[in-house]
Amino acid sequence: MQHIFRPEVCEQLQVRIRHLRPETPVRWGRSNAHQIVCHLSDQVRLALGEIPGAPASGALSRWPLNKLLIHVLPWPKGAPTPKEAWSSKPGDWQADVDTLSRLLEQLAQAKADAWPAHPLFGKMSGRDWARLTYRHFDHHLRQFGV
User: Fold this and answer.
1) At what angle do helices 126-143 and 93-108 cross, to 10 degrees?
2) Sign of the C-alpha dihedral, residues 136, 140, 143, 146?
3) Which domain holds residue 93?
4) How many domains does the chain divide into?
5) Among 135, 136, 126, 50, CA closest to 88
6) Is residue 2 one of the residues assigned to a domain?
7) How far apart are CA 52 and CA 116, in angstroms?
8) What is the mean pLDDT, run by run of 10 residues, along the chain of 146 residues?
9) Does residue 66 form part of some domain?
10) Does a structural domain hold residue 31?
11) Can you give the CATH number for the domain in which 139 is found?
12) Is residue 1 part of a domain?
């Protein structure tokens, strides 16, 4: 199972991020590449506890559905996203890409005893965050063909 705590998987994501360009056309959805770079950075900030998330409630935050969505089930295009993961606005392209790369590496190296809850999926372990982050990045990088 792919997750960002595996160094080779994290490096593959880093390479794909470097292939993304601001003018890369989107295959589906409404966000452009620069907006997605900021969105992915916000998701990592949620995982690191730098952006506080609203308490999760509802079916998605309950076992076993939350674990199935994080680890197994395919993600539909246009799936719900917590508002906290859209906090940052695009600035300078290269600075935003560099920030994303740094944040991804920081999360991949994290050794926290306690991890923040996710606004949709509720209580999360480090393994959950590592898997969710891989799947989230992969989903959006595929959205731009990288």
Assistant:
1) 150
2) negative
3) 7-143
4) 1
5) 50
6) no
7) 8
8) 96 98 96 98 97 86 92 86 92 99 98 91 96 97 97
9) yes
10) yes
11) 1.20.120
12) no
